Amino acid sequence: MKFSIKAGKLQPNTAAAALFVCTDACPCGQNGADEVVAALCAQTATDEQRFVGSQVWHNGSLQALAVLRLQHTDYAAVQKAVAEAAAWAAKQPQLAVDVSALDAAAAATVVEVLTIALAQAVYRFDGLKKEAKPAALAEAVFYSGEHALQAALNVAEATVYGMDICKNLGNAPGNVCTPKYLADTARREAEAVGGQAKIMDADAIQKLGMGSFWSVAKASSEGAYLIELRYNGAADADAAPVVLVGKGITFDTGGISLKPGEAMDEMKYDMCGAASVIGTFCAAAKLKLPINLVAVVPTCENMPAGNASKPGDVVTSMKGLTIEVLNTDAEGRLILCDALTYAEQFKPRAVIDVATLTGACIIALGHTASGVLGNNQALVDSLLASSRAVNDKAWQLPLFDEYKEQLKSNFADLQNIGGRPAGTITAAVFLSYFTEAYPWAHLDIAGTAWKSGKDKGATGRPVPLLLNYLRSQAQQG
Ligand SMILES: [Zn+2]
């Protein structure tokens, strides 16, 4: 979809579909708008009704005309308010949006939020269907009045770019999105935006001593890859990078600790951490953020087979710590721990891993908020601030030392599960043994990466949160 900005005010009768955005402080009637627009605006004064869309006979032609009257102009409020307008707009082939009545800050927020909402509304994953049914909307033009809004549009388009990569990878079925496909796509997408890719195969993974990662990967015939993407945008090419690490289990059967059959198809989404990291990397490079960035993705399937890991097996991680694998379905932490050790070599200023890690996170936070944990409160606070800034909700859980008791093993340095209590926390505690060398935070997105049921599909989260965080880091220099 194409987006652009034009200076000046929208003349209502010049567009096939026109959306006017105003506020209670400045309703359309007050800013010299066309009387048809003012009349529509007058219908939007109640709390329940902030949007009115209509077909009007206007100066000799039939026109789709709508008014969205905002009560509040913060990001979350605008996001909620534009939902109905975006659904209406998706049915129009071409949309003109007037934000000239808003103040500069509100206009920028509306451009950013509405662009993302429109892109989400027209998003389809129908390449595997005989007949594709694309949405009608192909182009939106924002009329900015006096405001400079290009920067807001650039951020929104980069966010959409990253979210679409994330969603396309997430929605692709397990027989399409294999570890090889994930690696090839990561390379292609990274190179398309000026990044570099290094793909390491099963031999390289074993040579690196990633015995924990390999213990998960070895039972699959699809192979395993360690993906490393690099983007150097900082003025100083040697400046310490931010490292994003994403869990890339392209299908999770649970292994020998086999999962129940119900909704098992959704285990194709067990690579959404990887997808969000790759998407965010590409969005940041597309925005040319002045920051150095590395993405590390361990990817494989978790399958049962004659050579699969068995409950009770002890494996040796790249760091040298031994791990008793009590449940082969707690495999995400087994591949992540070696990727997190690998990340040390970059001498990172911060490492953030993103993973669909625990069902317990859905019990704790539902499908609304991602879980955040970490060993550095300043880093966690930055992520929470970004989460609020773009309403990509996240909530911190504690990493108290007491939880370490649950990971003690009689036969190894650690065991890979800590029982039912505090399952999201003990998963993060497990990872914390491998992240002592740098500031680290962990995002558990098991509840937020995809939706089930009628709206089944990847959400593109937490790309908005991560991109906002990287932008804030770039501003700090
Ligand atoms: Zn699992």
TrEMBL record:
Xref: InterPro entries: Leucine_aapep/pepB, Macro_dom-like, Peptidase_M17_C, Peptidase_M17_leu_NH2_pept
Chain residues that bind Mn(2+) 1: D252, D329, E331
Enzyme nomenclature, EC number: 3.4.11.1, 3.4.11.10
Reaction equations catalysed: Release of an N-terminal amino acid, preferentially leucine, but not glutamic or aspartic acids; Release of an N-terminal amino acid, Xaa-|-Yaa-, in which Xaa is preferably Leu, but may be other amino acids including Pro although not Arg or Lys, and Yaa may be Pro. Amino acid amides and methyl esters are also readily hydrolyzed, but rates on arylamides are exceedingly low
Location of the Cytosol aminopeptidase domain: 327-334
Cofactor comment: Binds 2 manganese ions per subunit.
Pfam families, alphabetized: Peptidase_M17
Compartments in which it is found: Cytoplasm
Catalytic EC class: hydrolase
UniProt cofactor(s): Mn(2+)
Family (UniProt): Belongs to the peptidase M17 family.
Alphabetized NCBIfam families for the sequence: PRK00913.1-4
Protein name, as recorded: Probable cytosol aminopeptidase
Biological source species: Paralysiella testudinis
